[in-house]
């Protein structure tokens, strides 16, 4: 006799505000939540920790950077790898009513390209190559929790940005053309920069990853990124410094070293040039 698991039905009407068909949360997954299916579209992002994601009859190991697009009717549940509170499995969830997602895609020029993704019947899994999706969903979660002017418009814009990011990830995963291969190699270069921003990365090393010559790499990188390699690398480092200044009380010299700058005077000058204020003023929220 087959053993059936209890699967709970979740309804969007229990999550959505009456005039807003969008819900965003940050959940610490436990062993208490039962497997469930729902009548809405869900985008889940693993923000911290590790564990497993049970989707229908399949089980996926998950870690930071895993993304799942879950259509209507698919049963699923996340499970942490450990019950220890020091190592939580944290998942960001963006939920939207299917008809609202379709209207949103159709409302913007070119948005019809997103419709096949929205209509897909199975779970789709992606990887966040260099943290872009993480930043988008963190921003969306912040907007959802606050009551700033234009909140509804900002939330719809944020959901559209997530869908567009998934659409592009889907194209990269499925593409076989030379353009798709080149795009994937460029994404690997960006992932390397974002993952090793504190190190000195040479154009020769990155060009080898891209599979092209150094001179061609400089030209193509500037075209794809909109700026030279050095400027892009600096921007990644300074953005990380901004995050550390906002979220920690570490010394500025420690933060400078953590993002790859041992010369504190150079770091201070570069930070001010990029942000219009010193690191100390940025941390205090003072004008430049």
Q: What attributes characterize this protein structure?
A:
transcription regulation, HTH-like, RmlC-like_jellyroll, activator, Jelly Rolls, 11 helices, alpha+beta, five-stranded antiparallel sheet, 288 residues, Helix-turn-helix transcriptional regulator, three-stranded antiparallel sheet, Arc Repressor Mutant, subunit A
Question: What does this protein structure show overall?
Answer:
Keywords: Activator, Cytoplasm, DNA-binding, Transcription, Transcription regulation. This is Helix-turn-helix transcriptional regulator. The protein is of the alpha+beta class. It folds into three domains: 8-174, Sandwich (Jelly Rolls); 178-226; 231-284, Arc Repressor Mutant, subunit A. The protein is built from eleven helices and ten strands. It has helices at 98-106, 115-119, 132-145, 151-174, 178-195, 203-210, 214-225, 229-247, 252-258, 264-275, 279-284; strands spanning 8-10, 22-29, 36-38, 41-48, 50-55, 58-63, 66-70, 76-80, 89-96, 124-127. Strand 5 and strand 6 (58-63) form a beta hairpin. The longest helix is centred in the middle third of the chain and has 24 residues, at 151-174. The N and C termini lie far apart (71 Å).
């Amino acid at each position: 006799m087959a053993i059936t698991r209890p699967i709970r039905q979740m309804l969007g009407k229990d999550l959505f505000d009456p005039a807003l068909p969008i819900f965003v949360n940050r959940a610490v997954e436990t062993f208490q939540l039962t497997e469930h299916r729902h009548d809405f579209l869900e985008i889940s992002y693993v923000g911290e920790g590790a564990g497993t994601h049970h989707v229908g009859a399949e089980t996926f190991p998950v870690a930071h950077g895993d993304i799942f697009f879950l259509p209507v009717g698919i049963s699923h549940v996340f499970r942490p790898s450990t019950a220890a509170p020091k190592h939580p499995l944290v998942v960001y969830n963006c939920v939207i009513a299917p008809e609202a997602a379709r209207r949103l895609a159709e409302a913007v020029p070119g948005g019809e390209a997103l419709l096949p993704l929205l209509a897909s019947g199975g779970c789709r899994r992606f990887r966040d190559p260099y943290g872009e999706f993480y930043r988008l969903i963190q921003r969306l979660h912040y907007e959802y929790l606050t009551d700033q002017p234009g909140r509804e418009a900002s939330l719809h814009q944020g959901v559209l940005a997530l869908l567009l990011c998934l659409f592009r990830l889907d194209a990269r995963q499925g593409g076989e053309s030379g353009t798709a291969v080149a795009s994937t190699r460029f994404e690997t270069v960006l992932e390397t920069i974002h993952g090793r921003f504190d190190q000195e990365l040479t154009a020769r090393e990155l060009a080898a990853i891209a599979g092209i010559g150094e001179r061609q790499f400089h030209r193509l990188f500037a075209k794809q990124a909109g700026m030279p390699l050095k400027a892009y690398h600096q921007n990644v480092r300074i953005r990380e410094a901004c995050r550390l200044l906002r979220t920690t009380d570490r010394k500025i010299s420690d933060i400078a070293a953590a993002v790859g700058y041992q010369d504190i005077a150079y770091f201070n000058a570069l930070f001010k040039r990029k942000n219009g204020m010193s690191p100390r003023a940025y941390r205090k929220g003072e004008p430049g």
